[in-house]
Specification:
The chain is built from 12 helices and 19 strands. The protein has a 6-stranded mixed sheet with strand order 3-2-1-4-19-18, with helices on both faces. Strands 6-14-7-8-10-9 form a 6-stranded parallel sheet. It has 361 residues and is of the alpha/beta class. Helix 1 packs across helix 4. Helix content is 26%, strand content 24%. Bound molecules: NADP nicotinamide-adenine-dinucleotide phosphate. The site of NADP nicotinamide-adenine-dinucleotide phosphate has 23 residues, from helix 7. The site of NADP nicotinamide-adenine-dinucleotide phosphate (NAP) has 23 residues, from helix 7.
Length: 361
């Protein structure tokens, strides 16, 4: 009989447990340990509440969770309540599936001002994560800036833009539903430090913005390369860029605007004791497609800044860590000495939920 500890009960954790069951059958016992009292990690606290079809994947994990040889041990923080070395002594193998729940910090003057919130905190707030229940983001302001051009930025912009009726069927928590229903925000800037061809947004998620009840997206076609250049993009990105181009033709007749600001690199947050504006430098692309500042700056008036610029895995004492990539140092998931890592803790915060399945296996 093998005894395995999986630390973290999100997708990577349950796919690992499922893989262990498939491989060892009745000859394995898996303990899934989580700092939260309830399982499913990112599915519960990260996936947007209005994306129930994505959240539905928990049913697959539930099958594993309810089987006889898999146990959930909640409310245990590894590193505080039990050390990695202790776990290594107790189990045949320890698998770190701790995800990447920490925001990458916004490294600029004014980033500490009230009104600047990381996406982990903001998403946690509307998803009922107990650590962020008291976040109380400023929604009595008329404009918000969402920094980043990935799918998390889209989630945040969409949640800020939706009407109460559009949350029917979601599992948004009551405090966020009520606060968002009373929100005064009418303009949501989505800032990319590079251009439309460099976005990390997927077509389905981007397309949703074109069908909101009371909000409409706006782009400046002057930011786009010639249309013929789209043919060079891989199909998914080409579809996303087509959605963006189509946004230009939508009538701007709704109450809220989602403004895509490309080639816009935030350089400072300013305000008197709270966020009042974001200072942005215009960029251009160099030959490696990196954003280079042009020296030209402008201000975006806003009272809320949500940073959606990626996440980091929290380091654990005694486990080698790659600071720059925000993940455990590993070779194809092997850390060494009976210690493994999977999912975002292994690869860094990229890929869809399904990407974690082969990782777990
Ligand atoms: P992401 O896809 O890596 O996007 C991060 C964005 O932040 C990029 O646009 C990046 O720009 C920008 N950025 C990074 N540092 C910055 C800085 N200092 N200043 C300005 N911009 C900066 O990460 P994510 O949006 O957090 O998503 C994480 C993963 O979860 C992704 O794989 C995503 O697809 C997935 N996800 C999927 C869904 C869904 O399928 N519905 C929903 C949410 C998340 P550069 O490109 O210039 O670096």
């Amino acid at each position: 009989m093998r005894h395995i500890a999986v630390i973290g009960s999100g997708p990577a954790g349950y796919y690992s447990a499922e893989a262990l069951q498939k491989h060892y059958g009745d000859e394995v016992r898996v303990d899934i340990i989580d700092r939260m009292p309830v399982p499913y990690g990112l599915i519960r606290f990260g996936v947007a509440p209005d994306h129930q079809s994505i959240k539905g994947v928990y049913r697959r994990y539930e099958k594993v969770a309810l089987s006889d040889n898999v146990r959930f041990v909640g409310n245990v923080l590894v590193g505080r309540d039990v050390s990695i070395d202790e776990l290594r002594g107790l189990y045949d193998a320890v698998v770190l599936a701790t995800g990447a729940p920490n925001d990458r910090p916004l490294d600029m003057p004014g980033a500490e001002l009230p009104g600047v919130v990381g996406s982990a905190a903001f998403v946690g707030w509307y998803n009922g994560h107990p650590e962020f229940a008291a976040l109380d983001p400023p929604l009595d302001v008329t404009a918000a800036a969402v920094i980043g051009n990935g799918n998390v930025a889209l989630d945040v912009a969409r949640i800020l833009a939706k009407t109460p009726a559009e949350f029917v069927g979601s599992d948004i928590v009551a405090h966020a539903f009520e606060a968002l229903g009373n929100s005064a925000i009418r303009t949501i800037h989505v800032l990319g430090r590079r251009g439309p061809h460099q976005i990390a947004m997927t077509p389905k998620e981007l397309g949703e913005l074109g069908h909101l009840e009371d909000a409409v997206p706006e782009v400046d076609l002057g930011d786009f390369p010639p249309p013929l250049d789209d043919a060079l993009l891989e199909p998914g990105l080409r579809k996303s860029v087509t959605h963006l181009r189509d946004f230009a033709g939508l009538p701007k007749t709704k109450r809220k605007l989602i403004v895509f600001d490309f080639f816009a690199k935030p350089v400072a947050v300013e305000g008197d004791g709270k966020v009042e504006r974001l200072i942005v430098e215009r960029t251009r692309l160099d030959e490696r497609q990196a954003a280079v500042g042009t020296g030209e700056t402008y201000a975006i008036p806003c009272g809320l800044v949500v940073t959606c610029i990626g996440y980091k895995t929290p380091p654990l004492e005694g486990v080698p860590y790659e600071e720059d990539r925000g993940r455990f140092a590993n070779s194809e998931g092997v850390i060494g000495g009976g210690l493994y890592c999977v999912g975002w803790a292994r690869r860094g915060p990229t890929g869809t939920i399904g990407t974690n399945r082969p990782d777990g296996y």
